[in-house]
Amino acid sequence: MFATSNYQKELTMRVWIAMIMMGLTGLAQAAIKTEQIDYKSADGTKLVGYYAYDDAVKGPRPGVLVVHEWWGLNDYAKRRARDLAALGYSAMAIDMYGEGKNTEHPKDAMAFMQAALKDSDAADKRFDAGLEQLKKQPQTDPKKIAAIGYCFGGKIVLDAARRGAARRTVAGRSQLPRRTGHQYPGQTGHQSADAGRARCQGQHGHR
After folding, report:
1. Up-side HSE of residue 38: CA atoms within 13 Å toward CB?
2. What is the pLDDT of residues 12-50, one digit of tens each?
3. C-alpha to C-alpha distance for 60 and 73, rounded to whole angstroms
4. 32: number of Cβ within 10 Å
5. DSSP per position, 74-134
6. How far is residue 81 from each of residues 5, 16, 183, 185, 191, measured CA to CA in Å?
């Protein structure tokens, strides 16, 4: 009886060790992959995308575009893409300023944003170029695409939703006009999206 009990304990321990090792192996294999994607908008602007996905997820999965704040394609936007990849999506943080330009200074950020929004058609083309890049990635299901934007990026994804380019959007916009008196170029109030074109969720707030 004593020998049998020891054998059972040893066998149980071996099984637990094997299960732990299998779990650790699975975690190691489920690494988030990232890559830089260089592309161009229809007007020839050179753009830089940051693409992220979990290589442990098999087959095409829903894709999410991440549109940066007025700072440009910075580490925050890239981190959000990785967060989405960890949740099982393919995610791409796109570039709305060209050549991955970004800044930490508000004056430069304002200048970048105003230049990008001065021509709304050009801004639409830059969004669409990023959208097409995400759709063509082998990990992405091109029929299941959403977009998330922060502040400046919130305006971009809402504009995309209004014209039917993005079926599902989440716009996280700070109260920039209320706090500083500035308005986005061309911002004259809320525009209505065509019924049935897109589902939108807005997250509003201010510091």
Report:
1. 2
2. 666 556 555 555 444 444 589 999 999 999 989 999 999
3. 25
4. 16
5. -HHHHHHHHHHHHTT-EEEEE-SSSTT-B-S-HHHHHHHHHHHHHSHHHHHHHHHHHHHHH
6. 51, 35, 28, 27, 28
Q: Are 45 and 116 in contact (CB under 8 A)?
A: no
Across 140-153, b (16+ Cβ under 10 Å) vs e yields beeeebbbbbbbbb
In the predicted model, what is the mean pLDDT of the chain? 80
Convert 54-93 to b/e letters by CB count within 10 Å (16 or more is b): beeeeeebbbbbbbbbbbbbbeebbebbbebbeeebbbbb
- Which CATH number applies to 32-205? 3.40.50.1820
Reported pTM: 0.73
Statement: residue 127 has pLDDT above 50: yes
Q: What burial class does residue 1 get, using C-beta atoms within 10 Å of its C-beta: 0-12 exposed, 13-18 middle, 19+ buried? A: exposed
Domain ranges of the chain: 1-30, 32-205
Amino acid letter, 139: Q
Terminal C-alpha separation, the chain: 69
Q: What percentage of residues in the chain have a pLDDT greater than 70?
A: 65
With CA atoms as reference, report the closest residue to 94 among 160, 138, 31, 144.
160
